[in-house]
UniProtKB/TrEMBL annotation:
Naturally occurring in which organism (per UniProt): Deinococcus peraridilitoris (strain DSM 19664 / LMG 22246 / CIP 109416 / KR-200)
Keywords: Isomerase, Lipopolysaccharide biosynthesis
GO molecular function: UDP-glucose 4-epimerase activity
Name of this chain's protein: UDP-glucose 4-epimerase
SUPFAM superfamilies according to UniProt: NAD(P)-binding Rossmann-fold domains (SSF51735)
Length: 344
């Protein structure tokens, strides 16, 4: 079961970003009443308006940091999908307070506004970088999860359901490593590998969207959903792309960038101890205890010592052929390949 969107009014914050836009297209395939796009950039909104020409789509200029502008878009909304964020790791390292303002304060505004307007459900978009965070982007996304759960904890059963979703790297997303490597291969330049041993969870944008819809369909108060995913090393990813493009450019090792980790964690042992396996997804239930811990302790609870974190090092590791296969499922990679084949 996915979400029932029939006759619903859906608000997408960050609706002109690549994630928000794909979500918008997906939602418009359903029989929705209205979709509201809330974002800061008037030019991007104008382009999207011209591209879509769909009377069901309404545009709201505003900034999640400004609660009044969020409130202005929330009236009569049934579902909120909160994607507005600062998500570039390096820029958040240099401007961490900007990440705090958008990812923490802004998310708090969105969730509180949704609750105040009696929205049915709000889903907040998080990332694997929020687990054991080392960079400002991950730290602020981790705090966003905490803010969402703290609001959820105080709500009554028929109030807004507040949930989060966490997933790994979206393949071919703007500014990410796959389009960069392809551009380097096409220009016959060395492929710049930070550290060949580094692993990342890999998933498509469509997978990420389905995760959000799954959360709309299944979340209980305060839940977080995690999409299980395979992973690969950066070295194997570079090799797979070279094989697909039939080239052999040199690989140059450039070293880890600001705030990077050797591997990512999608769910920590503490989270796994109160999670439910739902096939492609894990449901991590909110810890809804208050501060009187001794009254909750029962013998026979799952022991964290028996569990491992769920990481991009211990999930299924794709071999080079498997990565090639997955890359070929992406329309953008297929388009890059066919334009390359006509040139060569
Ligand atoms: O020139 C490069 C650039 C990156 N990498 C490596 O490729 C992997 C993926 O790098 P990306 O920049 O594609 O992705 P990140 O894991 O750094 O972060 C990405 O995923 C995050 C979600 O977890 C955020 O969305 C973020 O904005 C997005 O860039 C990393 O191991 C990175 O070190 C290289 O080897 N060479």
């Amino acid at each position: 079961m996915s979400a029932n969107l029939t006759n619903k009014t859906v608000l997408i914050t960050g609706g002109t970003g690549s994630f928000g836009k794909t979500m918008l297209e997906r939602v418009l395939r359903e029989d929705v009443r209205e979709v509201r796009i809330f974002s800061r950039d008037e030019l991007k909104q104008e382009h999207l308006r011209i591209e879509l020409r769909d009377p069901r789509v309404r545009f709201y200029l505003g900034d999640v940091r400004d609660r009044a502008s969020v409130d202005g878009a929330m009236h009569g909304v049934n579902l909120v999908f909160h994607a507005a964020a600062l998500k570039q790791v390096p820029s958040c390292e240099f401007f961490p307070m900007q990440a705090v303002m958008t990812n923490v304060v802004g998310s708090h505004n969105v969730v509180e506004s949704a609750v105040a307007h009696r929205v049915q459900h709000v889903v907040c978009l998080s990332t694997d970088k929020a687990a054991y965070p080392v960079n400002a982007m991950g730290m602020t996304k981790g705090l966003m999860e905490k803010v969402a759960q703290s609001v959820a904890r105080r709500l009554e059963p028929d109030d807004t359901v507040v949930s989060s979703v966490r997933y790994g790297n979206v393949m071919y997303s703007r500014g990410s490593v796959i389009p960069l490597f392809i551009q380097q291969i096409k220009a016959n330049q060395p492929i710049t590998v930070t550290d060949g041993r580094m692993t990342r969870f890999m998933m498509s944008l469509e997978d990420a969207i389905e995760l959000v819809l799954f959360s709309f369909g299944h979340a209980r108060q305060g839940d977080m959903f995690v999409k299980k995913a395979p992973a690969c090393t950066v070295e194997d990813l570079a090799q797979a792309l070279q094989n697909l493009f039939g080239t052999s450019v040199p690989v140059r090792t450039i070293g880890m960038r600001h705030g990077e980790k050797l591997f990512e964690t999608l769910a920590t042992v503490g989270e796994l101890a109160h999670s439910q396996d739902m096939g492609d997804y894990l449901r991590v239930a909110m810890d809804d205890r208050d501060l009187n811990y001794e009254k909750y302790f029962t013998e026979g609870e799952p022991d964290e010592a028996d569990l491992d974190d769920y990481t991009s090092h211990n999930t299924h590791r794709m071999a080079v052929k498997e990565i090639e296969h997955l890359l070929l499922t992406l329309p953008a990679v297929r388009a890059e390949l066919s334009s390359w084949e006509t040139v060569t």
